[in-house]
């Protein structure tokens, strides 16, 4: 009888241990799910930021193209005697062109940084997904 009592106590302790482990894994899984959602949200934010920068780059290139077209028109119209001095026309256009050029040079650096952030977030997401899969398996 004592032997059965010890066996029952042993199985109860083992059952409690399994329940505790299951609870702890569930808690860890919940925390990892929350972190995964946060990471996915951050990734989406970074993707939107990259899209915005790409749109700004396109706008800067369109501005650059407009400046070039305007310069061609100015040079073509320069043959007329009634036109103002070319320097008066070119000065504001050169400033606008330089600004557009500077923006076009800054965008690739920003894009590269955001892409690196994106890759890091992807790796983190995959790592967390693997951890979640592992935790769900056990």
Automatic annotation (TrEMBL):
InterPro entries: MAP70 (IPR009768)
Pfam hit, one: MAP70
Compartments, as annotated in UniProt: Cytoplasm, Cytoskeleton
Domain of life, source organism: Eukaryota
A cellular-component GO term for this protein: microtubule
Entry GO MF terms: microtubule binding
Biological process (GO), any one: cytoskeleton organization
Predominant subcellular localization, coarse grouping: cytoplasm
Membership in a protein family: Belongs to the MAP70 family.
Protein name: Uncharacterized protein
Native species: Zingiber officinale
């Amino acid at each position: 009888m004592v032997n059965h009592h010890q066996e029952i106590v042993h199985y109860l302790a083992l059952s409690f241990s399994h329940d505790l482990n299951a609870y702890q894994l569930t808690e860890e899984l919940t925390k990892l799910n929350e972190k995964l959602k946060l990471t996915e949200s951050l990734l989406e934010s970074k993707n939107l930021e990259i899209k915005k920068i790409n749109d700004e780059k396109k706008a800067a290139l369109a501005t650059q193209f407009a400046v070039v077209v305007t310069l061609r028109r100015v040079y073509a119209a320069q043959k007329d005697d009634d036109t103002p001095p070319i320097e008066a026309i070119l000065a504001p256009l050169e400033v606008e062109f330089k600004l557009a050029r500077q923006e076009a040079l800054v965008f690739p650096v920003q894009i590269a940084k955001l892409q690196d952030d994106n890759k890091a977030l992807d790796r983190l997401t995959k790592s967390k997904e693997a951890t979640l899969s592992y935790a769900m398996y056990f």
